[in-house]
Amino acid sequence: MSILIAGGAGYIGSHMVDSLVNQGKDVVVIDNLSTGHKQAINSLAKFYFGDTRNKEFLRDVFKKENIEAVVHFDAFSLVPESVVKPLKYFDDNLVGIITLLEVMKEYDCEKIVFSSSAATYGIPDKNPIKEDFPLKPINPYGDTKVMMEKIMQWCNKAYGLKWVALRYFNAAGAKEDGSLGEDHRPETHLIPRILQVALEQRDHIDIYGNDYNTPDGTNVRDYVHVLDLVDAHVLALNYLNDGKESRSFNLGSSTGFSVKEIVETARKVTGKKIPAKIAARRGGDPDSLVADSTDARKLLGWKPKYDDVYKIIETAWIWSKKHPNGFDE
Ligand code: UFG
């Protein structure tokens, strides 16, 4: 029996594939490589190139492979892009999961672990955020994630689909040996952009706004290591195998760090000056987003190992130094 990883060439998906293969599991990857990288897929996994929206492609994979469960990472995930290209996001993210669930049903595959996001909460009334807070996304990306969760909920009611949605806060870091890491094009995320300054690929880092309602005026986020996210997916698969209730879980360290604190920590990690300039707000950024991950800890048994941002940035720095041009080298 194999585990199917949809989007296994992407940042978090590729770390998941690598971890499962190293645990001796049979892993099948599907990816259309629109944002992922073939080089990121562990060579011991079986790779099928294709699009999750293509039913015939999926049927072919399910026919050839004995899939016991799916982990679904495949989605477009750039918030600013989703605001200007909403149809691209609704098409890829929604048509993708609907097609995948249809084919899973045809082949009696009934378990799915799904990448959701803190973007489902929009601007929360308070922090830390619990799973039962209202879902009020403020961009199309977040809306697609809420809809994808709802689609799974209704399939659970209709025919017993077993699902777990993991709402990541800010995924960061890399595999410790620097062989896998984050390579988005364009790169919009804070930590890799800061490290591009440390590598002298950028002159400075723009800090998007210092007049937020936070202690130092810059946005506060909850950074969680990619390998801790991977652990949570493995635990979520076990949770479903144990027949437990389908639901969503927050995944965050439960500690918030401001943009300024992240820049300061990156200076310590890299020993580089990393010039920073205050720039205009980016638009659509909530003041603070910090997870209450009590449920994931209690019910999944999740214990994040990378419990401070220094360690998280350190792993990202090892990756950035080894792969200054991402997977192109
Ligand atoms: N930021 C800067 N300068 C930069 C880049 C980012 O100041 O050059 C700031 C942002 O304004 C934000 C913080 O750094 O306050 C983190 O920004 P990221 O782009 O790294 O991450 P986001 O918090 O915007 O987004 C992440 C995921 C999304 C997800 C969201 C949910 O990338 O997929 O968390 O909170 F939707």
Automatic annotation (TrEMBL):
The coenzyme or cofactor needed here is: NAD(+)
Cite the EC number.
5.1.3.2
Is Nuclease a UniProt keyword of this protein?
no
Q: Name one Pfam family in it.
A: Epimerase
Enzyme class, first EC level, given as a word: isomerase
Q: In which pathway does it act?
A: Carbohydrate metabolism; galactose metabolism
Q: Which reaction does it catalyse?
A: UDP-alpha-D-glucose = UDP-alpha-D-galactose
**Xref: SUPFAM superfamilies:** NAD(P)-binding Rossmann-fold domains (SSF51735)
Q: Name one GO molecular function term.
A: UDP-glucose 4-epimerase activity
Q: What keyword terms does UniProt attach to this protein?
A: Carbohydrate metabolism, Galactose metabolism, Isomerase, NAD
**GO process annotations (BP):** galactose catabolic process via UDP-galactose, Leloir pathway
Query: Domain NAD-dependent epimerase/dehydratase: where?
Result: 3-252
Q: Which InterPro entries match?
A: Epimerase_deHydtase, NAD(P)-bd_dom_sf, UDP_G4E
| Quaternary data | Homodimer.
Family (UniProt): Belongs to the NAD(P)-dependent epimerase/dehydratase family.
Q: Indicate what this protein is called per its UniProt record.
A: UDP-glucose 4-epimerase
> What broad taxonomic lineage does this protein's source fall under?
Bacteria, Bacillati, Bacillota, Bacilli, Lactobacillales
Q: Which gene encodes it?
A: galE
